[in-house]
UniProtKB/TrEMBL annotation:
Classification of source organism: Bacteria, Pseudomonadati, Candidatus Omnitrophota, Candidatus Aquitaenariimonas
Protein name: 2-oxoglutarate oxidoreductase
PANTHER family, per the entry: 2-OXOGLUTARATE OXIDOREDUCTASE SUBUNIT KORB-RELATED, SUBUNIT OF PYRUVATE:FLAVODOXIN OXIDOREDUCTASE
Molecular function, one GO term: thiamine pyrophosphate binding
Residue intervals of the Thiamine pyrophosphate enzyme TPP-binding domain: 67-209
InterPro entries hit by this protein: 2-oxoacid:Fd_oxidoreductase, THDP-binding, TPP_enzyme_TPP-bd
Family annotation (SUPFAM superfamilies): Thiamin diphosphate-binding fold (THDP-binding)
A biological process from GO: small molecule metabolic process
Keywords assigned: Oxidoreductase
Length: 247
């Protein structure tokens, strides 16, 4: 029988703590596959956030360190400057990157730091109970917005990746999703692109990944997948947002 798929050797064989239907596991797998395919395991350093992916180092078989909440880009900047030959990437959720870490990601991008960022956007604070995040959609119900997000009270969803495109130091920005096999394949190519940019010394590159959170969206896995396709992509359109290759 022809073998059509095998798990990356850079994924540890351990039980997952993620909820059923969560997109983090998919993104973890894609990162492991890309690093293995690029042959950069011995040079790669990942920075884990505070959030649902706080123990990402339990799943990847390469060097990973932890950062305080929101300070992930600052830690990555320090490591990359001290060890410029390493491939350094941050793995961040919307609470880590678009809330407490807004300042860090803006200034890191504006400086044009030669790092790669994987930004997983599921629209809620997953680790702490499903509260409203900066990226929560209008009218979306959360643990702190029982009637849905009201822009008059709670403000509007923050399209953080779109904001970054106005910074001269941001070289490459792309938004992808993992709500379908087709989009998963595109996400893998985007992750490879942001790492390849760093290898080539092109500067700050980020891929935003729209991800499911069935538990705190109070949906089945299929409903969560459909929610992204029907609603989330309208607020956060998929595609390349900025490409320094074409500047």
């Amino acid at each position: 029988m022809k073998k059509v798929f095998s798990r990356s050797k850079l994924l540890k064989d351990v039980p997952t703590h993620y909820c059923p239907g969560c997109g983090h596991g998919i993104v973890h797998r894609l990162i492991a596959e890309v690093i293995e395919e690029l042959g950069i395991r011995e040079k790669t350093i990942g920075i884990a956030p505070v959030g649902c992916a706080v123990i990402a180092y339990d799943y990847w078989d390469f060097d990973v360190c932890e950062a305080a909440h929101g300070r992930t880009p600052a830690v990555a900047t320090g490591i990359k400057r001290v060890l410029p030959d390493r491939i350094v990437f941050t793995y961040q959720g919307d609470g880590d990157l678009a809330a407490i870490g807004t300042s860090e990601i803006l200034h890191t991008a504006n400086r044009g730091e030669n790092i790669s960022v994987v930004f997983v956007n599921n629209g809620v604070y997953g680790m702490t109970g499903g509260q409203m995040a900066p990226t929560t959609l209008i009218n979306q119900r959360t643990a702190t917005t029982y009637s849905g997000r009201n822009p008059k009270l709670d403000g509007y969803p923050l399209n953080i990746t779109d904001l970054l495109k106005y910074l001269n130091g941001a070289y490459y920005l792309e938004r992808c999703s993992v709500h379908s096999p087709k989009e998963v394949l595109k996400t893998k190519q985007a992750i490879k692109k942001v790492l390849q940019n760093q290898i080539e010394g092109r500067g700050f590159s980020l891929v935003e990944v729209l991800s499911m959170c069935p538990t705190y969206w109070n949906m089945s896995t299929q409903q969560a997948v459909d929610w992204i396709g029907a609603n989330v992509v309208k607020q956060y359109p998929l595609g390349i947002i900025k490409n320094g290759d074409q500047a």
